[in-house]
Amino acid sequence: MPKILIIEDEAAIRRVLTKILSEENDTYEVQEAEDGLSGIELIKDNDFDLVLCDIKMPKMDGVEVLEAAKKIKPETPIVMISGHGDLDTAVNTMRLGAFDYISKPPDLNRLLNTVRIALDRKELVVENKRLKRKVGKNYQMIGESKEIDTIKEMIEKVAPTDARVLITGPNGTGKELVAHWIHQKSERSKGPMIEVNCAAIPSELIESELFGHVKGAFTSANKDRAGKFEAANGGTIFLDEVGDMSLSAQAKVLRALQENKIQRVGSDKDIKVNVRVVAATNKDLKQEIEEKNFREDLYHRLAVILIKVPSLNERREDIPLLVNYFSGKISEEHGTPAKSFSKDAIKLLQEYDWTGNIRELRNVVERLIILGNKEIVETDVKMFASKQ
């Protein structure tokens, strides 16, 4: 729910602005401040999506609020409102970082349009920061087994191309890691990588999530919204658990792959997209095709390159390397000294049946780091990591 702060010393104007925004969109959460000082205190303690700020106010004027707010929450858009507007004031506030400048009395359509654009801009800024943090992560594939070496060689060959890749394997084996490594080593690495967990999104919402929607397309569609394919333009879209996608969504994805075009839900306007598609699944898609749950034509579009990620039980020789890697990372996260694992402890871990694969191993290592002694020995593994 978007949070909007109105900083205005005239109570009547505050009430009018609150009423306008509430009637325009009942999902807006609007708060008020009667002067600049109280407005700044609210900005410090809250994450607002937009601030509407008067310029002429007692105690602390709007320009001072703007300068202070930009230091506290630089990503928050601030729209300045003044009854004493002139060109110099408008230029000055924009130079200081204001999103826009509106004169009193504000034109209703201009005000609402500015609010909508500012909120969309805030959403994009936050999403871009999140994507940059994710792209900045150094994804690594830990292991020297034959199976992992084969995957690394395939990634080196496939990544520089735009070929679509289908990654298969049980849950917890690291399919997402393979997808990220392909993106990092591709020509699209400076663009976004957008992830979509197809299993986590209700079937009635998956099309809107992937392709976006226009205002009024369905009950809760209060405004136009871009989908994941548009967000991934120039980069990579990762369709995780693609085998759980509805047949209706599959048809639209197929069209997007064939024509490099999408349509938002509720619109007949084509939007061109330039994305690389990497998909993953823990299902046997050929079996799903036989059971009429997955389109064969989409399978062949996705599986240009097929990468199978092995279970941990198929690469037990990598467990010592994985334990050492997780031990260092987990100790760093918890701010504790790194702990070593005895040979007997490692040997016992290699003998376990890892039904949860890499994800399960990491959880066990974390438990041992927290509960075990300075050196993790066989008795620690039996006590804290027993599979019985």
Automatic annotation (TrEMBL):
Domain Sigma-54 factor interaction: 141-370
Record-linked InterPro entries: AAA+_ATPase, AAA_lid_NorR, CheY-like_superfamily, P-loop_NTPase, Sig_transdc_resp-reg_receiver, Sigma_54_int, Sigma_54_int_dom_ATP-bd_2
BP-aspect Gene Ontology terms: phosphorelay signal transduction system; regulation of DNA-templated transcription
Domain of life: Bacteria
Pfam families xrefs: AAA_lid_14, Response_reg, Sigma54_activat
Keyword presence, Transmembrane: no
Keyword Lipoprotein set for record: no
Residue list for modification 4-aspartylphosphate: D54
CDD domains xrefs: AAA
GO molecular function: ATP binding
Residue stretches making up the Response regulatory domain: 3-119
Keyword entries, A-Z: ATP-binding, Nucleotide-binding, Phosphoprotein
PANTHER family: TRANSCRIPTIONAL REGULATORY PROTEIN
Protein's UniProt name: Two component, sigma54 specific, transcriptional regulator, Fis family protein
Species of the source: Croceibacter atlanticus (strain ATCC BAA-628 / JCM 21780 / CIP 108009 / IAM 15332 / KCTC 12090 / HTCC2559)
Taxonomic placement: Bacteria, Pseudomonadati, Bacteroidota, Flavobacteriia, Flavobacteriales
